[in-house]
Hints:
Double Stranded RNA Binding Domain; Arc Repressor Mutant, subunit A; 2 domains; four-stranded mixed sheet; two-stranded parallel sheet
Amino acid sequence: xxxxxxxxxxxxxxxxxxxxxxxxxxxxxxxxxxxxxxxxxxxxxxxxxxxxxxxxxxxxxxxxxxxxxxxxxxxxxxxxxxxxxxxxxxxxxxxxxxxxxxxxxxxxxxxxxxxxxxxxxxxxxxxxxxxxxxxxxxxxxxxxxxxxxxxxxxxxxxxxxxxxxxxxxxxxxxxxxxxxxxxxxxxxxxxxxxxxxxxxxxxxxxxxxxxx
Length: 212
């Protein structure tokens, strides 16, 4: 049986004090800064009431170093970080998998991700899933913007202003998105799927806070 114990740590970055939680299955959450370290602890414990603050093990420390570098404006690959997806709805998992392929310096729209999932009508569901992303930076939901080029939403403290800061540190260029769309996993050329009601898997996961 896999140990379900969750531990967490706070760590300093260029944008403030972030939080990371982990279990035996992998990284369970990454949170952007709150108003204070106490608020960060309280926010984390709303999702994991029994979480214990602890020194990060070496594997988690490497993830922290990658996040710190990324937030300082240094490209660091985080797409190989193992995530603990316990309690994350299946549709959200698929959205996060695609979002993790958006490269440093690029952005994608909610519709781009929906098309890559093979369901162009699911842009709204994609937005809802990203709004509940518990893995800030590792799942780079800040790189997902509106189809018209506006910023779209962001539910971390500071809202869209925080999203703009993150993208500015990466020097985001929408022109780089063409290469991302052209990758083999892109869904370009598929016939549009019919519109339908939101799928059960797109519903909010119980107790899951979002960053985006």
